[in-house]
Amino acid sequence: MRTQLAEFMRRMEPGSVAVIPAAPEATRSNDTHYRYRQDSDFYYLTGFDEPEAIAFVAPAHPERKFMLFVRPRDPEQETWTGRRAGVVGAKERHGADAAFPVTEFREKLAELLNGARTVYYRLGVHPDLDEALIKQLAEMRTRSRQFTAPDSITDPGAILGEMRLVKSDAEIELMQRAADIGAEAHVLAMQNVRPGMYEYEIEALIEYHFRKSGAAAPAYGTICGGGANATILHYITNDAPLRDGDLVLVDAGAEYQGYASDITRTFPVNGRFTAPQREIYEAVLAAQTACVEMVKPSVTWDDLNDRAARMLTESMLRLGLLEGDVDRLIEEKTYRRFFMHGVGHFLGLDVHDAGRYKLDGEPRPLDPGVVVTVEPGIYVAEDAEGVPDRYRGIGVRIEDDVLVTGDGHRVLTSKVPKGIEEIEKLMAH
Ligand SMILES: [Mn+2]
Known about the structure:
The chain is of the alpha+beta class. The chain folds into two domains: 3-162, Creatinase/prolidase N-terminal domain (Creatine Amidinohydrolase, Chain A, domain 1, 3-Layer(aba) Sandwich); 166-427, Creatinase/methionine aminopeptidase superfamily (Creatine Amidinohydrolase, Alpha-Beta Complex). It has helices spanning 3-11, 40-46, 75-81, 86-92, 105-113, 127-142, 157-165, 169-192, 199-212, 275-294, 301-319, 326-331, 420-427; strands spanning 16-21, 27-29, 32-33, 54-57, 66-70, 98-101, 118-120, 152-154, 217-218, 223-226, 247-252, 254-256, 259-260, 263-268, 358-359, 362-363, 371-374, 377-380, 394-397, 400-404, 409-411. It is elongated and about 80 Å long.
């Protein structure tokens, strides 16, 4: 049995069962679908990558602790849409104690739930299954001489989130690979960008490297914003020409065997930073480097956010973007005019990964095995009022992926440079 599944069973309440469905296929338009992406919790527990599957987990059952309901083998369908493991494959290759066609799930549901005190199931994601489960529970309660219905439906996210948050050595290896592929792609972008190219050419170059390296896909929509487009946080249109004298902000990461990297670099289209670009860049780099250096066990998100906010506010004052008293500007979060997002997030199977940012309302200390992004930025809109002209339309973000280790941290994305001299040197060749 997969270690993740065994650990999940260990953490489930006594006398409970779990229903964990696969992600549905997503329609792109009419009868075409997006490339299939498995639900992260389902994938984490089962490693099974097909749609229309349901895992049923029953730790107290003597033989059938892990059941998979799957699409059955169907030679005609498989000719159209691809190979299926089927019920035999689910048992032989995916470790299920028992497997059935997914069409039999609902008729078996009463028998499966009978006697369990709690059923772990995430409501609100699969409306059809929500309805089937709730109806089944109601029916079992009316037939109480025959069935004992579970008392509660509990979200499995609390258990799974905490498990997913702390990465095993095997997961860290996959994340390092995702980070390497991502970092190499950013290096390629720096080496190949030229004035007159379009943003989508950089996007294509990066995603070409992802796929060529065996990554399933970008882990999120690749952001490639030249000039003032860099000041739009989730700019993914990527259709403008890159101009001589502008910066380009690239936020792109690969998904490798389910795990994400998330990297941002900002560099000059022509290979040389201008003085105003350099001033903003140095301010962001100083905050980013300081925050990365802080990452170690017991540090909290509040510590990191406070440090970034203070350093960036001091720089904004020095550059004339803000005026006033530094403590007051921080307290009133005035810096949010130019730094409007948090300093980072958890990273893993999801780009914004599972796991709680606060525990009992208190800022959570980071634990060894957690992977975070550190990504401060400064964004000065083209039409920003009351700012020096020289900074208008400049957006800079620098983002690395950082593993918390036993006594400090390891930067997973160090293969791509971020110092001004290193970037200019790389781009000069
Ligand atoms: Mn990020």
